[in-house]
Each structure stands twice: as structure tokens, then as C-alpha cells.
Amino acid sequence: MRQLKGGKQKESSKEKKQRKKEQAEIQKQVKTIVVPALCVMFVFIVVYVYLKTRPASYAMD
After folding, report:
1. What are the distances in angstroms from CA 23 to CA 3, 15, 20, 26, 30?
2. What is the pLDDT averaged over residues 18-45?
3. Which end of the chain is more exposed for a tag (fewer CB within 10 A), N or C?
4. Residues 12 and 1: beta-carbon distance below 8 Å
């Protein structure tokens, strides 16, 4: 493997493919885990704010 300036080794095509595959897996995890979790948290915050700011109901006796 050829040494580049600064002591870094040049990335082989096999390593490059592996790195791209790992990046694709990370993007897939973001779409399947992080985005839905953020949506659920957003919904809870909206419901909480709605419940805390709605006018109090008055009892008619």
C-alpha cells in the first residue's frame, strides 16, 4: 500500500466499498429509528403544551 504525505495510507477499493456500505447502513438506521423517535417526541410535546394551555373548564352547579 502506497504511503501518502502525512503518513496516511491510500484507501483500497475494497475498503472504500466497505466504508460506503457502512455509511448506507447508518443512513438506513437514521431513517428507521431516529426520525420516528423524533416524531413521537414532537407529538408528546404538542399534546403536553395543549393540555397545559387549554382553558380551565368551569363547573355549572
Report:
1. 25, 12, 5, 5, 11
2. 94
3. C
4. yes
Residue 1 has pLDDT above 60, yes or no: no
Cα R_g (the chain), whole angstroms:
26
The CA distances from residue 60 to 51, 52, 53, 55, 57, in Å, are 21, 22, 21, 15, 9
Judge contact between 1 and 10, C-beta under 8 A: yes
At 19 the pLDDT is: 93
Question: pTM for this one?
Answer: 0.56
Q: Rounded to whole angstroms, how far apart are CA atoms 27 and 47?
A: 29
Residue 9 has pLDDT above 80, yes or no: no
